[in-house]
Amino acid sequence: MSAPAGPKFNGTMKAIVFDRIGSPLDVLRLRDVPAPSAGPGQVLVQVRSASINPGDFLFIQSLYPDPKKPRLPQIAGQHGAGTIVAAGDGVSLAPGSLVAFSYQNVWAEHTVVPVEWLIPLPAEYPLEKAGQFMNLITAWDLLEEAKVAPGQWLALTAGNSTVATMVAQMARRRGIHVVSIVRRTQPEVDLKDFGASAVIDLSEQRDPIGEQLAELTRGQGLSAIIDPVGGPLVGDLVRALAWAGRLVIYGGYGNDRFALHNFDILMKDVRIGAYVYRYFFDPPKKSDSTVLEAITELAQSPDFRVRVGGTHPLEDFERAVRESWERPEQGKRFFVAEGGYR
Ligand SMILES: NC(=O)c1ccc[n+]([C@@H]2O[C@H](COP(=O)([O-])OP(=O)(O)OC[C@H]3O[C@@H](n4cnc5c(N)ncnc54)[C@H](OP(=O)(O)O)[C@@H]3O)[C@@H](O)[C@H]2O)c1
């Protein structure tokens, strides 16, 4: 296979690199690195949209379990989308195809991805969705794990987060009532436009949350909680579950723990489980194509909204990372190819 065409391609490319473990605010650097090339069964992709996610920060801090550990010096970024510019032997996807992927070395002008990790997308797919396809899959899976029926209530903590707003929109399409719980309301965002039936703002002093939820659900209780925060609130939410309710844990933002009595679980047959991204360790299987197509189609609609905090060239990485780290509630940020989304 040959090197990608283009006037700027001279054997090197720009990438966001770290060569020690630490806070993303301290260790990331913009570097010229050797441009990769695709071997058999791989593609070379021009990265057009690479999302900045809490998981990317965990990886840079080496907080993921083995074998998801950085190999220094390491190009950061794990989730993105782009155009195939060259394909190695044995690859049937044609150059020019738009693909999404969760792999490694993504915050760069180009990246190499084994073909089995690619999720092909329609050519005109919105890049703010393609570049974080992992979050769409996560939202879909979380809702499946929660096993909530139409007419039942689902509670989402970190309600302003990207994943929560995606889950809420998917839930609304299934006739599920969502209560989004936020630390504070974002004045410019009405979560009811993002699938929520109700919002509880924890910064407003009101009745105990159990009482608020009993009133909201008219005594029905919550059928599930999807939580990336933890802390005492989760204990209170579990106590607000209905019979056979579920708690699905998918993150750990908070530093605090929650406490439960065995009877809080036993007397309601509560199920507590974790969700780990389905392609965290292994690539998509051929049998996943139906569900991936369903997610692709559902999220493609302009009615399915994602909040974009900003798009950044790689050169602007310090601002992009700092804003994502300190003010994630502004919306998801993306590294984009020169010229922005085209
Ligand atoms: N398990 C998996 O496979 C998987 C996959 C994808 C994502 N995740 C996890 O999902 C979570 C959300 O990711 P995302 O990309 O949607 O996030 P995001 O868009 O960056 O949004 C993060 C939101 O979380 C809230 N938040 C931050 N720190 C918090 C804290 N200490 N307590 C309460 N809320 C806090 C903030 O909302 P407010 O400031 O408005 O409260 C913020 O809007 C992360 O924990 C991520 O690691 C897990």
From TrEMBL:
Coiled-coil region(s): none
Keywords from the UniProt entry: NADP, Oxidoreductase
Residue ranges annotated for the Enoyl reductase (ER) domain, each copy included: 23-249
Keyword NADP listed: yes
Record flagged with keyword Oxidoreductase: yes
Protein name in UniProt: Zinc-binding dehydrogenase
Protein's organism: Pendulispora albinea
